Amino acid sequence: MRIGLGLELNGTMDEIVARARVLASTGVASLWSSQIFGWDTLTVLAVVGREVPGVDLGTAVIPVHPRHPMMLAEQALTVQAASGGRLVLGIGLSHQVVVEGAWGYSFDKPARYMREYLSVLVPLLRGEQVSFNGEVIRTNTFGPLDVPPTPPPPVLVAALGPTMLRQAGTQADGTVTWMVGPETVEQHVVPAISAAASDAGRPPPRVVVTLPVCVTNDPTAARARAAKIFAMYGQLPSYRAMLDREGADGPADVAVVGTEEEVTAQIRRFAQGGATEFSGAVYGTPEEVERSRTLLGGLARAVSN
């Protein structure tokens, strides 16, 4: 199982690049960034990709509603070229409160929206011509995109429910999860997406697990801190459903917390459950952050050797 780290996109561009260099120097295989309400993640990763070699750059995730799939394909291929083929394009539906409340788009039938979105995005990334007339996504005969031959980035879909997991296995290269515990990964996510990929004649899917990580000698305090930092995720319906499936009261219960030995054991459990990659969103005191990064880098180097 590959090991990655979360790359926060706060601060100036120079600060982000410097942070990426530090994280890459730990030896992790990948750096993952989300798109929330700040810098444009793909643009930042294009800059990071030119400045920081030797590490994959993933989005976890880019919300699909604000960008037509043609525009996202153009942007993703630009980052892919700028980074030398190191982009992993994670996309997702976001949440109704954001899509309707912040952007003013309809969140009606989100699985349909993603299905139609992928029907345009994936062929364009592969350099194909696309003509698609769906219920919500439409593209007149267009393509291939006017760029030099560029390998398409893997496309991962933030999929949690059965319908979305089937779409991810059928139309994309895998999934990237957040706030999903080990039992749910092993008993729900991996079987569902693997069966869908197999039925569609596709390769085994990538399953990227992202969770908060804190290496500490005081797990009680660390989990209390996680409960405050990540409280909002326990209130969003899609994550709440996964926490309930896991039997977790809240995000703090699925955070990966403990000593080096305990955190290592928790991460290995995800590998045993079928995850192909783990990325840690490190938090805690400066000492705990350094211990967490060091441990994840060491695990990554051990896997690569």
Descriptive overview:
The structure is a single chain. The chain has a single domain, classed as Luciferase-like domain (TIM Barrel, Alpha-Beta Barrel). The mean pLDDT is 96. Helix 3 links the parallel strand 4 and strand 5. The radius of gyration is 19 Å and the shape is globular. The protein has an 8-stranded parallel β-barrel, surrounded by 8 helices. Strands 6-7 form a two-stranded antiparallel ribbon. Helix content is 47%, strand content 19%. The protein contains 12 helices and 12 strands. With 305 residues, it is α/β, with parallel strands linked by helices.
List the helices and strands and how they pair.
Blueprint: E1 2-6, H1 13-24, E2 30-33, H2 41-51, E3 56-59, E4 62-63, H3 69-82, E5 87-92, H4 96-99, H5 110-125, E6 130-133, E7 138-142, E8 155-157, H6 162-171, E9 174-178, H7 182-199, E10 206-215, H8 219-229, H9 237-246, H10 251-254, E11 256-258, H11 260-272, E12 277-282, H12 286-304
Overall mean confidence score, pLDDT: 96
Which CATH class is shown?
A: Alpha Beta
- Number of E-state strands: 12
CATH superfamily: Luciferase-like domain
Largest beta sheet: what is the strand line-up? 1-2-3-5-8-9-10-12
> Which residues sit in consecutive blocks of at least 5 with pLDDT less than 50?
none
Number of helices: 12
Overall number of structural domains? 1
Radius of gyration: 19 Å
Provide key terms for this protein.
two-stranded antiparallel ribbon; alpha/beta; 19% strand; TIM Barrel; eight-stranded parallel β-barrel; 305 residues; 12 helices; 12 strands
Summarize this structure briefly.
It contains 12 helices and 12 strands.
